[in-house]
Amino acid sequence: MEGLIEAPTQTDGIGTLKERGLMVTSINPSKARSASKRNKQGRRKKIKIDDKVVFSRQLATMINAGLPLIEGLSILGENMDNPSFAQVIKDIEKDIETGDTLTDAMGKHPRVFDNLYISLIRAGEAAGMLDQILLQLSGYLEKSAALQRKIKSAMIYPSVIVSVALAVVALLMIKVVPIFAGIFESFDAELPGPTKLMITMSDACRNNALYVLIGGVVFGFLFLRYIRTRRGRRRFDSALLKMPILGELFQKVAIAKFTRTFSTLLRSGVNIILSLEITAKSAGNMVVEEAVEKVRTSIKEGESIANPLKDCPVFPSMVVRMIDIGERTGALDDMLVKIADYYEEQVDIAVSGLTSLMEPLIICFLGIVVGGIVISMFLPMFQLGSIVGH
Question: Is 244 helix (H, G, I), strand (E, B) or coil?
Answer without folding.
Answer: coil
